[in-house]
Amino acid sequence: MNEVNITILGGGREVGRAAILVSNSEKKILLDYGVIFEEDKPLFPLHVRPKELSAVFLSHAHLDHSGAVPLLYINAKIPLFTTELTAELSELLIRDFLKISGYYVPFEHNELSQMLSNLNCIRYGEDLQLDDDYVVSVRDAGHIPGSSYFIIDVNGLRILYTGDINPSDTVLLKGADLGKIGDIDVLISESTYISYEHPEREYCEKTLIEILEEVLEKGGKVLIPAFSVGRSQEILLVLEKYDIEYPIFIDGMARGVIEILVRHPECLRDYRLLERALEKTLIVKDWSDRKKALDMPSIIIAPAGMLKGGPSLYYAKKIAKDPKSAIIMVSFQAPYTPGRHLLETGLLPEISGKVKARIEWLDFSSHAGRRQLLETIRKISPRKSCIFVHGDYRAVKEALPELEQEYDFEILVPRNGETISVKP
Ligand SMILES: [Zn+2]
Ligand SMILES: [Zn+2]
Predict the structure, then answer these.
(1) Which residues neighbour ligand 2 (ion) by CB within 5 Å?
(2) Ligand 1 ion: Cβ-proximal residues, 5 Å cutoff
(3) Which CATH class for the 4-196+366-422 domain?
(4) How far is the CA of 126 from the centre of ligand 1 (A)?
């Protein structure tokens, strides 16, 4: 049988713009087509001819996986396979992306509509037969609501693409479904935290609760800037799990995400916890609600998670000079974002002098940390090779000597544009 080519169109030695082309002599399928932000400007993956694609598989809604997919629909009609929840969340995020970065984006709402009109919804556990060539199995990746990883059977080879993966349970989601994977020849793995160990989740939850209680008892307000998809809801559920009785406000796009999640209760680990949390949560509707949130000791969950705008930046500026209040970051803070700047310097844009509110950072990551990633790779143990993508090259290089000593299979860290040929 003929060889299979795996071409890295994006996400090679970088965290972002995931895009992987899998092709045999007959057909090409694309796994993800995302963007990466350099400062505020989105960068796109390498070009692929949309008309040559037989299918696009989207692992999850984050823009670094979904943000460039509409580009493929300018003149082509390619079947798009993803979960219904990922499709709905992607629509929300891509619309927002067009609103904020539209000037730099080479497609418009029309292409997003075209993308959605070519949607084929897939479910966890499903094995999809694409003509005679490919069978693609869909599994829960445990990363954000609706996220999947894929196993591709082609030309007698089995290729597993993790997308972004989290094998551990969180309050919001069950960890990735890693049962009964069978033999894998090639593993294409994310490597975001391959050299970084997350603290225990329970430690983060308890620390968050301790800080909240200290601040709120003194009459302060707590702002939790959080990503709209996943992290905002995770924090909301942590507050419910620990039975926090102070008023909780949720603002920005996180509200729209909740509306979507309520329609997909089966995707959450414990939907009743969300129901109970929502009974107590005040969903911010207008400016008078925002004023109310700032008028009392309260917990405010709001995107953007890195304070790059949105309601979180508004609230941050309002409480910046209040030493009784706190801003607790719960997401990775990318370089050049106001959130990172605040953590490193204690300064916020448009606010003169140091921020007086208490500043904290807690690691509520939705990616596998080093140990979990290595355990996952060990469990899969590909027969031929492991291809690392979606990782900073320095971090992957740091982990390589240990990995090469431990594993028999070949380890590859390709650049964008590289093709790896695999023989059956
Ligand atoms: Zn992601
Ligand atoms: Zn990602």
Answers:
(1) 64, 164
(2) 62, 164
(3) alpha beta
(4) 21
Q: How far apart are CA 381 and CA 375, in angstroms?
A: 10
The sign of the dihedral angle between the CA atoms of 169, 173, 178, 179 is: positive
Who contacts 292 (Cβ-Cβ below 8 Å, separation ≥6)?
249, 282
Six token digits for residue 7: 């071409």
Look at domain 201-361 and name its CATH class. Answer: alpha beta
Residue 202: closest CA among 166, 170, 167 = 170
Separation of alpha carbons 152 and 305, rounded Å:
34
pLDDT of residue 103: 86
Residue 364 CA to its chain's centroid (Å): 12
> What pLDDT, on the 0 to 100 scale, is given for residue 133?
86
State pLDDT tens for residues 250-272. Answer: 999 999 999 999 999 999 999 99
Quick check: bond before 357 cis, omega within 30? no
pTM exceeds 0.85: yes
Q: How many CB atoms lie within 10 A of CB 200?
A: 11
Domain locations along the chain: 4-196+366-422, 201-361
Could you give the angle at which helices 338-345 and 310-319 cross, rounded to 10 degrees? 30
Q: Decide: 222 and 398 in contact? Cβ < 8 Å.
A: no
Per-residue pLDDT for 416 more than 90?
A: yes
pLDDT, tens digit, 9 for 90 and up, residues 302-316:
999 999 989 999 999
Q: How far is the CA of 258 from the centre of ligand 2 (A)?
A: 21
